[in-house]
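For this section, I looked closely at a protein sequence along with its fold in token form, which I now present.
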Amino acid sequence: MKILRYFPVMLILSVVILLTPGCKKDDNTEELKADEMRLLDQYLADKNITTEPTASGLYYIVLEEGDGPQPVNKDFLEVEYLGELVDGTVFSTTSDSIAQEEEIYDEEIIYGLYRFQLGYTLPGLNEGIAMMHQGEKAMFILPSDLALGGTNVGLVKAYSTLIYTIKLVNVIHDPDEWELEILQAYLDTLRIDQVASLDSVYYIETTPGSGPLIENQDVVEVYYTGYYLDGRVFDTNVGGTVFSFSVPQPYLIEGWNEGIRKMRNGSKGSLIIPYKKGYGATGMVDRQGRTKVGPYMTIVFDLEIVDVR
């Protein structure tokens, strides 16, 4: 249930950009690293890549120029990406169609633009993305020293070179200002005549209910669907078991405890919840490490109040 207050640890681009967990180290280091270098040299020759690596060993190849701002450490970024091994195996992607084609699709992953903070990812990606401009698309070849080293993670074996193709869609220097702008634009599309605030919860009623407003100590049964402002759904219980809870609940996000009081028995409506009333500056991942809500992200919940006791 994604309305719970999970406080995740900072992960490596949230599990190496959505890699599956399950890690293990190998002993035969020299042999594995020698094999990695052989495969990397063969890959560079096969792809006719003559770009010189940086001092750290990173290969940075611009595929499409960008003319936007460059990110700096601690900026929040939104990217599209593809992660591959030198043999062409795709281990991670933001594209649901590619994930399905490569048979790595996970219905629990939210595909599409991925938000993370620069400085908290793989060393090679921290270095490479800092050289990009917003709008740019680039390929990064990360030897294992700049990636996962001697650790096995999912489809990535120890001492594997990783190849990322990344499009830097948005550079977010000031997440508060960014969220305020997109929240105001969202309210404008709904013709809600209010000045956006990150401290407010907005309620749009679609079906009136009956009886008094929900208040403390009421037990509420509800169907819900949670989604981003761009419509991507991250959680729902529609078609499943009704969610029952007593108002208020400390394990629920503040936006729910506050917004539910705007509703009545039988009501249907939407809560627009800025990050300060939602999952905050850290966002939320599930217990398998999959990102469900990114940091500083405004979300929406469609609610149907089934019963109030």
